[in-house]
Amino acid sequence: MPTFDPIAAVRVRTVRIPARATHSHGSGDVSAVNTIILEVTTEGGVTGWGEASPWAVFTGTVEANVGALEMMRPLLVGANPLEVERLLALFGRTVVHCSEAKAALETALLDIVGRKSGLSVAELVGGRCRDSIPLSFSVANPDFDADLETVAALHADGVRLFKMKTGFAGHRFDLMRLERLRRDYDDLDLRVDYNQGLAAYDAIRQLRDIETFRPTFIEQPLPKHNLEGMARIAHALDTPLLADESVFDPREALVAVQMELADLFSLKIMKSGGIRRALEVAAIARAAGIGVYGGCMFETGIAHAAGTHLMAAIPDLELGCEFYMSTYYLKEDILSEPFPVRNGHVHVPTGPGLGVEVDRAALDRFTVATSG
Ligand SMILES: [Mg+2]
Question: Angle of helix 84-94 relative to helix 99-117, nearest 10 degrees?
């Protein structure tokens, strides 16, 4: 049994990395990744990395999550990093919401435990069920000609899952893009994500048009809290409906099951507050016959690695994952080796902990504020 030195330091960095292109969504545009990198170091000098990736219109703000981590710092210094669940419970009693900060803390603790024990995070949370996961890229550039070039490049890289972001520039634009992709390619697994962008009164009629393009699923057409509207759509359509913004944590997953508002859930550590809570969402989904998908926010390779270990540990992940930011969206990542995407698949890191290393010079370059 390895000895676990107490936590000595908790450094919180605000990081801003430009993106290669603007991505538009039903809930707004994104042209840079604004994220928080957490560095937890033990007295013995072992460092665990974590990331909180807020999006103000979806999960929360950078400022709130930085504040939450700073509130936790005096409670973490001197604590045993092996006590992951106790420290998460303490976080829950200390700060409400800020699920991204909670994910960051869990990731950093598991990274330390993994580095000390020689086990990967996937092994710490149940063991790996797979070594690779099919990668989905989001077609979200308001300049569709630029997106067509990106799709062609990714198709050449072996990517076959594409999720079109819809509901930000009108129904005709969405239909035109789907028609074009179906015409140009006969081997795409196409999905559609509204990011809450449709008005409830006209959603079903528009989605019936979308269904003619045979998407694998339609994601979150209505605002998060319109649960009754989501249920009406799920019952009206033949295409599976995926809940993203409507299902953050186990409690919301339970409500979603009771209300029959979706056929599928998107799992994200930034919504659930980490891997362990996301596994609970997956367990509720499994019990209810609901499928799960590997989602992410606007992240660097650190959060991608944590998400990849989660998805590796889920026995019935069938719809792939979307950890494409590091490879195809950020101008530059902060990992010392490229995030492992090859032939249209994310390959699950095998090294101890997260199995990725941080390029400190790159991290310093993109850091805009530091505390601790
Ligand atoms: Mg989504």
Answer: 160
